[in-house]
Here is the input.
Amino acid sequence: MPTSFPTRARRLAAAGFTLIELIVVTALIIVLTTVAMVSYQNSVTRAREAVLKEDLFRLRDAIDQYYADKNKWPGSLEDLVTDGYVREIPKDPMTDSADSWQTVPAEADPANPAAEPGVFDVKSGSERMALDGTPYTEW
Here is the structure.
């Protein structure tokens, strides 16, 4: 007796997804997740780079203020803290350590040869490259 209604097996087969559909959806989810993760990692790196630029600006400004007030360069970054130019040495956001800053010594002053050379500049201690392709140690 022919019936116009689909049989139970046909209805069950028609109600589910095919294997191809599941593979396509899974592939799309993987591609979108990968794009989102790369974007997230780049935004975290951009944020750390912004913090690094700000920390370098603040430390260099404190070094310059120290020199303007005392007419000599600080002996170390700790001198900036002890003399009240900064509250604390910030952590390098790329190395997550306050001890990794690389200091650039000042050249000897020919007008004052007895003066001790001190810290003229500060740079990041990270060996990694920035998103723009330059090493953080050159910032």
